[in-house]
Amino acid sequence: MPKKKTTKTKKKDLGDIEKQLARALADYDNLRKRVEREKADLGKLIGARFAVKMLIIFDMLEEAQKHLKDSGVALTLEEFGKILKEEGIERIKIESGDEFDAELCEAVAVVKGGKSGKIADVVLTGWQFSDGPVIRPAKVKVNKK
Fold it and tell me: Residue 113's beta-bridge partner residues?
């Protein structure tokens, strides 16, 4: 036959159970927050994959605009740009003469001359989310002495 617990033992057991419950609730809250973060990250990843595909079309329209000077293409590009901005996607602001940044750029060629480590030319515009992560790095030519 089991021993009867004293009031002191019962209080200690209750305290232990309360601590276990508090830990379990904290663990659950941490798990919930992690799942929310991972869900948001996954949504961004899916959005980025889609954006990369759409940016190819944007690039083609920009190239067409250079040659056609057609207002229909210009209006399409303008609307496309607005949609990208609404989705939190923006151009990587980089141009000739800027310092090469491997986080934002991908060197596709080396050009002899000029100041070493500086961008000689932007071959293809890069894009990133407005909160930082790069969707597509800018393709650039880099100077090297």
Answer: 144
Angle, alpha carbons 56-60-63 (nearest 5°): 140
Question: Residue range 56-83: average pLDDT?
Answer: 86
pTM beyond 0.85: no
| The pLDDT of residue 38 is above 90 | no
Q: Is the pLDDT of residue 45 over 90?
A: no
* Count of Cβ atoms closer than 10 Å to residue 142 Cβ: 20
Per-residue three-class SS string for the chain: CCCCCCHHHHHHHHHHHHHHHHHHHHHHHHHHHHHHHHHHHHHHHHHHHHHHHHHHHHHHHHHHHHHHCCHHHHHHHHHHHHHHHHCCEEECCCCCCCECCCCCEEEEEEEEECCCCEEEEEEECCEEECCCCEEECEEEEEEEC
| Residue 2 binned pLDDT confidence (cut-offs 50, 70, 90) | low
Asked if residues 121 and 140 have their Cβ atoms less than 8 Å apart, the reply is yes
Q: What is the CATH number of domain 90-145?
A: 2.30.22.10
